[in-house]
């Protein structure tokens, strides 16, 4: 078990090679191709597992690991069509986790998936140099293709992120411009409303001033008429007084 534990700490590629070297003869070509496909899934989920870690709890740069934790192990089984409930997964995971470290190495997965014996695996020779070379070459080809695909995916994600960033900036700019236009329109409407109110107030004030001026002119005219009437009345009163005095004088003389 100790030697097995050491092997599970190797890269997924080395683990797959170890399994295939042990069971090369009884593994048909379609199963070998399937194992390469499963290896790629391990690589993909391993990167996702790293990305999901908090930045302060992961290495600064990504390096391929050797096993998946329970969460990502469940994800891997789902990705190959083995949908299990949480309870079903825990039961199966106990069978998979041969070294009981609560993680799933690719070697443990392959033993479980293809119902191979751990004891048989560790007792098998690792094959002839030619067989090892052939398995390694196939893995290298898949690794190259996977790396190219991953680079393309990363580039596509970066391009999409940049496009989304530009889209967000454009939306933000358009929103800001629309907001500025709305503010300007509101200010213009408020200015027009204030100007209209001021004009109405000015017209009302002018009308009241003209009415007051007319009232003042009428009052002046009436005052002047009253003054003239008073002067005329005084003149008539003075004449009457003079006439009365003259009549009295004549009366006194006649006596």
Your description of this structure?
The protein is mainly α and 255 residues long. It has a domain of 126 residues: Recoverin, domain 1, CATH 1.10.238. Helices cover 80% and strands 2% of the residues. Helix 2 runs antiparallel to helix 3 and helix 2 runs parallel beside helix 6. The protein is rod-shaped. The model has no long low-confidence stretch (mean pLDDT 86).
CATH overall fold name of one domain: Recoverin, domain 1
Strand order of the main beta sheet, please?
1-2
State the CATH architecture of one domain: Orthogonal Bundle
CATH class division of one domain: Mainly Alpha
Short description:
This protein has 255 residues and is mostly helical. It has helices spanning 2-8, 12-22, 29-52, 70-79, 86-96, 106-113, 118-123, 129-254; strands at residues 67-69, 103-105.
Task: Write the topology of this structure.
Layout: H1 2-8, H2 12-22, H3 29-52, E1 67-69, H4 70-79, H5 86-96, E2 103-105, H6 106-113, H7 118-123, H8 129-254
Antiparallel strand pairs: 1-2
């Amino acid at each position: 078990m100790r030697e097995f534990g050491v092997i599970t700490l190797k890269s997924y590629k080395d683990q797959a090679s170890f399994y295939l070297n042990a069971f090369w003869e009884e593994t048909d070509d379609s199963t070998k191709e399937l194992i390469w496909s499963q290896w790629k899934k391990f690589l993909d989920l391993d990167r996702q597992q790293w990305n999901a870690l908090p930045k302060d709890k992961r290495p600064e740069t990504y390096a391929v690991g050797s096993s998946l934790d329970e969460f990502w192990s469940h994800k891997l089984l789902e990705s190959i069509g083995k949908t299990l409930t949480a309870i079903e997964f825990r039961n199966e995971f106990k069978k998979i986790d041969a070294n009981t470290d609560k993680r799933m190495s690719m070697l443990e997965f392959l033993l479980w998936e293809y119902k191979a014996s751990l004891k048989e695996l560790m007792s098998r020779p690792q094959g002839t140099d030619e067989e090892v070379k052939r398995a390694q070459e196939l893995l290298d080809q898949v690794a190259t293709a996977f790396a190219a695909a991953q680079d393309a995916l990363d580039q596509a994600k970066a391009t999409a992120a940049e496009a989304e960033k530009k889209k967000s900036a454009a939306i933000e700019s358009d929103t800001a411009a629309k907001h500025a236009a709305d503010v300007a329109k509101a200010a213009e409407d408020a200015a027009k409303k204030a100007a209209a109110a001021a004009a109405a107030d000015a017209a009302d004030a002018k009308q009241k001033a003209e009415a007051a001026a007319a009232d003042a002119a009428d009052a002046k005219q009436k005052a002047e008429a009253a003054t003239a009437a008073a002067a005329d009345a005084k003149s008539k009163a003075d004449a009457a007084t003079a006439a009365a005095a003259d009549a009295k004088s004549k009366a006194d003389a006649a006596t």
